[in-house]
């Protein structure tokens, strides 16, 4: 059993409600049935702790993106409510930002303008918003590319612009929907390392959706495992790996390897 893994079995009656006293995002009894009768989520209750990175992991199509979009206020639930810092979510809000799978950049705008766009929408003066955007462009490793356009960048670089934009608005909660799915394995590993650094530096709450067990274990403080659709919370795993020092050490750490294997054993029956 990996260090700090909560005991639990897949497909059994683990309670869906998980309380954490320091939760910044509370998901209360969320269900979602799409028009046409697709039941994506069934009575999900969860608390996301402040300042941590929590990943949502589960079988393909189980509703991970749906849950993230409901928390973002982009999709309305059929039942239940979301509280962020104690306030009920009724739509998108300044305390939450979202990094989309497809980057969602404006092709006609430079990296600088794209990264500053969230602040532009909020009416922040140009010099101020560009100063903030420049800081985050540097933080995501794109210094020197401020005046390039999205089509001049690789997919990985475009993704970094999306991340810089999400960080620049200084939201408390940053949501990322499979942000690294479109890049090659080497770039992906590099991003994962950068993300760990950003999580440590920024002290924001990150909600992360991924398909990859390895990625979830590598970047997360906590993993929420969802069942097959209609999704319920099957298990919460706290990850406590030594995240300072050589990033490759994490991938060789016995707890990392045990946790990856443990999660795989639980999920494998969904794909067999
Ligand atoms: N707008 C929609 N209308 C109808 N059904 C939808 C809509 N969006 C998603 N669904 C369905 O809801 C279910 C959950 O979708 P969702 O994208 O949330 O899952 P996911 O776990 O993020 O998937 P994946 O792992 O493949 O990215 C799927 O069956 C999907 O086809």
TrEMBL record:
InterPro entries tied to this protein: AAA+_ATPase, ABC_transporter-like_ATP-bd, ABC_transporter-like_CS, ABC_transporter_ATP-bind, P-loop_NTPase
Where does the ABC transporter domain lie?
Answer: 25-253
The GO terms this record gives for MF are: ATP binding; ATP hydrolysis activity
Record's keyword annotation contains Nucleotide-binding: yes
The UniProt keywords, alphabetically, are:
ATP-binding, Nucleotide-binding, Transport
Keyword flag Transmembrane helix: no
Record family assignment: Belongs to the ABC transporter superfamily.
- What is the official name of this protein in its record? ABC transporter ATP-binding protein
